[in-house]
Amino acid sequence: MTTPLKTGDSVHYRKRIRKELQSVSLNADMIRLLLVIDESKSIYQLSAEAEMDAVTFNRTLAGLLAQGLIEPVQREVPPLDRSFLNAMRSHLAFVIGPMADILMEEALAEMGLDPSRIPVEQAAEFINRVALEIPDDAGRIRFKKSMIPILNKIKT
């Protein structure tokens, strides 16, 4: 019986101690992923740290689950608060003007996120996605630099 692969912002994985004495078979990808598994990390963080593409990551994660070496842990991921979005809108408007709201809405739609429930873990990705739409390099850099202190506040 295979364990269904669970994904999403609130699903995390942790290492599991097996009671059975069955042997396990690990390949290099499984070992690499097992080394970075920590229940405080999202699947996005695990994939990035293991340096795996989505297909390899999903296959490897499923293999570790099937052998009972890891297990899913459901966690509540807090959403970004309104002050983050307001600050981001303000900094973006300073750089590009009234198009700020439109760029933010487009980035949210591309990421498939509800503006009222943006996971804290995706704040940096959201900033980067919006920054990619800023037409000039200087404006893009200025926007990203202005968001660093705000991003650091939510990480603590």
Describe the structure.
By secondary structure, this protein is mainly alpha-helical. It is built from 7 helices and 2 strands; from the N terminus they run βαααβαααα. It folds into 2 domains: 11-74, Winged helix-like DNA-binding domain superfamily/Winged helix DNA-binding domain (Arc Repressor Mutant, subunit A), CATH 1.10.10.10; 82-155. Helix 1 crosses helix 2 (43-50), helix 4 runs antiparallel to helix 7 (137-155) and helix 6 packs antiparallel against helix 7. The mean pLDDT is 85. A two-stranded antiparallel sheet has the order 1-2. 54% of the residues lie in helices and 6% in strands.
Mean residue pLDDT: 85
Strand content: 5-15%
What is the overall silhouette? elongated
Number of strand segments: 2
User: What is the count of helical runs?
Assistant: 7
CA-atom Rg in angstroms: 19 Å
**Poorly predicted residue ranges:** none
